[in-house]
Design a protein that fits this description.
Length: about 300
Amino acid sequence: MPSKILSLKKIFFSTYFLAILACFLWSTAFVGIKLGLVYTTPLNFAGIRFFLSGLLILPFAGNWSNYPKLLKENLKPILKISLFQTFLLYSLFYIGISLAPASITAIIVGGGPLFVALMAHLIIKDDKLSLKRLIYILMGFLGILIIVIDRYEFNWKEGKEFWGMVILILANISGSYGNILVSKESRKITPLLLNSWQLMLGGIAIFILSLFAEDHDFGIKPVEYYISLFYLSFLSAVAFSIWFVLLKRPRVKVSELNSWKFLIPVFGAILSWVILPGEKPEIIPVVGMIVISFSLLFISYKNSS
């Protein structure tokens, strides 16, 4: 019996299992965000969500008496990670998902590891791309291109879905660089504390931006809004903490870990089609999803072989 318990523990704490769990949690966010946006504006929703997420993590992040010293010693990397991994990423993400269907958002954002792999190749010395991996990445970009071209309409009024996808691609670029920063510049601080601070700082910055960029209704909202907000805050706290822990594990490469995100477009799109009214599978987005998912699956297979 003890050997079985140890075996299960090994599975549950393995990089593979935790990466899949984090990806599944993230895939549920697209539905939750769409439900919450019925009652509020994108940046306001994002700012409150990520501040609460950071706050939820803080009690579990270690010895509170060391916080001022750690913050002072690591202020520069914390601010950089907060800028790219929360402020820019999720400001763009929430604006993008407010313009595009949740299922398409899940597919585009699920292609994020393609951007991570390419950026890691350019920035990190020991994370270079082979010719085969480059071909797989280009195949994934083709899947994104198929979806974007299908919705192409330059005019803002008729082309909001197209511009939403462009904004989501910019979010992918910001998040990719944020992943690299977590891997490179955060060795002196625990993953939970880093995640807590970067989420809170990023959330505060997004909320302040929302005060200038959006109209606000600070009245009491329906209970569905609060359920969505607190669920999203919880999943961000858990999923980001898992991801930060994995990024700091020895011998875990940024591009290899992110290749597991091939699950996000699949889970996210299916959940959106099943749960959200008005969203249904369409041929072009499904083809794009399959191309992107297979691209990331091939990268993942090559990494593990």
